[in-house]
Design a protein that fits this description.
By secondary structure, the protein is of the alpha/beta class. It has 9 helices and 12 strands.
Length: 315
Amino acid sequence: MSETTWNSRLAPSPTGAQHVGNARTYLINWLLARCRQGRLLLRIEDIDSPRIKPEAERLILDDLAWLGLNWDGECVRQSDRLDLYRSALRRLQDKELVYPCTCSRRDIELAASAPHLEHEGPAYPGTCAHRQAADAARIVDRPYSWRFRSHPHQNAFVDGFLGPTTVPSALLGDFVVWKADDAPAYQLAVVVDDADMGVTHVVRGDDLVPSTPRQLQLYAALETHPPAFVHVPLVVGPDGRRLAKRHGDTRLSALRQAGVAAEALIGLLAWSCGWLPAIQPSSAQDLIPRFNLKSIPPEPFVLHRHHLQSIGYPV
């Protein structure tokens, strides 16, 4: 990956509290940018309106300040950028790269030959793919979304951590870029944002690997140069699943309220990434000379109760 220019971003969504797993990914992202004398931007992804919590953005900013993870420039909010997303949608419509889709999630589940457990559900079976963009004007009796005409065999990329990566073609059906409630979908919004903000490297959890071929196709469709992608392992509970309430309270705000020092958590996360020989307090700044992306274990970090107890969190 190129080290001549490095613009990456933190992109939290104010749909809930940030937890220990978020902090680990943010720390890796911050260190990558700082070690390369790059810029780290902040974007609040706040267009998932039914799930947005009014107090969550303030908590995000408090969490980042507590961790000592600063960013460059002003904070960007997706809710201020709707015109950019609409413009991108029109470009895709003009190229006949999207079509109106009246299928519900239930329709797709019933049409799928086999269920998939990915976040976005089963691959779309192409029920509405015969439509053209102009057909939207004749759909007056029901809501519709806009789907991108995907190329399922454009499914490989080179990841900055994982190396050569291929997503199964069966997971890459046509995907929604504009939702039936007249709001941009995640895939389109992040591509438009990263291109507009000049992001050169996207650093995020490896649960988003399946999104990458979709986003690369959108970059090509919008005639925009894509960033490099770096997908890092998640933090999981003892059951191997992503951190959630079932694993206890791992919210950063809860750690703060319990009196845990940010340096204690940073030290735990640094140890989990192989940068410290033992769990010991450290600041993010102090880790810059120790940082090495290749030292991060490839498997998820399993967070146990005793890890949190070791940094003074009474769980």
